[in-house]
Amino acid sequence: MAVKFFGQFLVEQGIVTRDALVEAIDLQDHKNLKLGAMAVEMGYITLADIERAHNAQMSKDMKLGDLLVEMGFLTLIQLNDVITRQKNTHLYIGEALVQVGALTSENLQKHLADFKADQAQYVSDGIDLPVKIANSNIWEMTADLTYKMITRVLDLQFRAGKCATVDVLAPNFMMAAMDFSGDVEARYLISVSEELQQSVARAILREGSVAGESAEVLEDTVMEFVNVVCGNVAAKASQMGVIMNINPPVTIHPPATGMPVPEGHTALCFPIHIGDGDKMELILLIKN
Amino acid sequence: MKKVLVVDDSLSVARQLEKIIGESGDFVCVGHAKNGAEAIKMNHTENPDIICMDMNMPGMDGLTALRTLSVMDKEVKVVMVTSLGGVGDKFTEALKLGAKNVISKPFEADNVLRILREL
Question: Which residues contact residue A24 at a Cβ distance below 8 angstroms, ignoring those fewer than 6 apart?
């Protein structure tokens, strides 16, 4: 029982072969152009324009399309043209498997229904806080920005699970934490397995392998990820008129029994399912 | 070659910056300080041309160190490297205290070198 992508589900169920899935993914890569590439193909912008927008995107929480418009490389009408073309020509993995002859159109619908039933527990319909809590817009933004940074900084594919309140923080290999003060008081925690710590380290250090790195460096990379997210959360909060100060990050090694939530706090837990059943958690320990 | 001192409590950020600086061809990294107090000491012993400094560090933070450095050493050029670059007040405060620029995290090598070369 784990989070899966549709292709992986089909292979595990023996419905399609691995080779057929690879062939279908290659077909998708060939046909599905990213927004920038599509805009280039449509003759609206150049590769140099995309590079400049990508550089600007590192310090701005904006989608590439919006940034291309803001920087004057695309008009709004052109952006809409590009998005429409992307939508109209997008090839989903199921359709790609049909095109390479691994599935029939009729079977595809049945397998999609089975897949949705299998994955229902992991699906999150946006960010939905389970309790009424002060500054809920800030906590929703914090979770949203964390998701975006997992994609942008860590380059990991994930599926966000449903947020729940918890009384005990579940044990994991390590946690990195940062305290917020100012208009809100809370602790931001990211909990990772040993395998995910390695993934974070590879992305932060920009190295293909981190096999020879010390435990201190590996832990530091998770703290740095937390630092990057929380700094950007503080920036976003300031745009929303809320002052959030941050303090230097720390690491925590939770006991096997987990860590009880301190009295007077609400703990919001956001499960983040990554690839092969591996799980990261974002926990917001909010002072009531 | 211009000498650069890296100041960051994060080993991984220091590693990234040292790599970018070391591979640039026109800068050399002369050391790594883990907080503002160490930065002030190493500015005296290593005499760097440029200091790349984090804002949020345990002990003496980056803005406090910047305040001291701008009084003690009029020659050294300080660039803040921080995840708080998007917080308007922090950005403005750093520039008012004498920082030459602010690099937001996450950063790209090209952007870091462009800013250092413009100093």
Answer: A7, A16, A93, A96, A97, A99, A100, A102
